[in-house]
């Protein structure tokens, strides 16, 4: 089987590439490197012993993307490539719609043209917005409250409508909060600029690259007042994509799953676990809530467990230990 992975040098895409290659699947990566490094291809090869095909290609260029499909006989697509910063999406909404929506349209066009009938799409808990009750089930209303979340919801609609019309198979995975890194310490999350997610921020404070963490909101209705989220090891998440491909072997139609651990942890819990993993003190300051943040968000992933035979396995302590190993071994990212 040959799988095209858009965004395959990114954080989740690189871990998924490793997972697939280790199962003997041929991987073709397409990435414009806007938020990742070419060095990731070398690291994937070091971990797996296999070098994936790599195309430095922007999926917003339909002709460039078609060329990749012409060169490779693709069986399935896993579509990760997207911009993902909520705050940047508020500042530059058109950039987000252009990249995430046009990119997805082009991926679907290429699939139609080259008769590829299986896709796994990266979606996000951000599609639920502020309205759902925890634990969130897949049928909760979709009401994203920022441009990024809206692009994810639109991607879901495009892929679902297209899959229905062409009678092919689509699995939509709504990720909660992926953290951690491959246990080799060779690949991990490497945000360009100041991190906007909690874990890379904490690990950069531990490493002395950032002075302190700002904890946004300490008066939420949660046990310690700080926001509660559902964290999931990126390698567990990568395994979810393999299970999604297996699901598509014998099924057409559209299937949507939450991919989370089903457990909530507060920001202060995460700081404590990271201090334990790293043996370092994390300096932090309590700050005002950020507009649009929810007090709590965690998944009901029982549908994925039942239909994909997938379940999150790693503990928070392992997530923090792996994140710290990655940070320690790569103090300047992939440089
Ligand atoms: N990391 C999270 O917390 C999280 C949570 C929920 C959903 N997601 C979704 O998962 C997917 C992967 O996220 P990630 O954390 O690995 O992000 P990432 O930024 O590390 O990876 C995305 C990759 O896509 C590439 N890319 C972006 N636009 C492109 C384009 N037009 N053409 C080609 N390549 C392009 C980037 O260079 C990058 O390598 C995204 O769709 C994101 O929305 C991420």
Describe this structure in words.
The structure is a single chain. The protein is α/β, with parallel strands linked by helices and 335 residues long. It has a seven-stranded parallel beta sheet, sandwiched between helices. A three-stranded mixed beta sheet has the order 12-9-14. The structure holds nicotinamide-adenine-dinucleotide. Nicotinamide-adenine-dinucleotide binds next to helix 1, helix 5, strand 5 and strand 7.
Question: What features would you highlight for this structure?
Answer:
about 325 residues, alpha/beta, 14 strands, binds nicotinamide-adenine-dinucleotide
- Determine the fraction of residues in helical runs and give it as a percent range: 40-55%
Strand content: 15-25%
H and E order? EHEHEHEHHEHEEHEEEHEEHEEHH
Bound molecules: nicotinamide-adenine-dinucleotide
Give the overall pLDDT as a whole number.
Answer: 96
Q: What's the N-to-C terminus distance?
A: 33 Å
Largest sheet: 7 strands, parallel
Low-confidence stretches are none
**Spatial order of the strands forming the largest sheet:** 3-2-1-4-5-6-11
**What structural class results from the helix and strand content?**
alpha/beta
CA radius of gyration:
19 Å
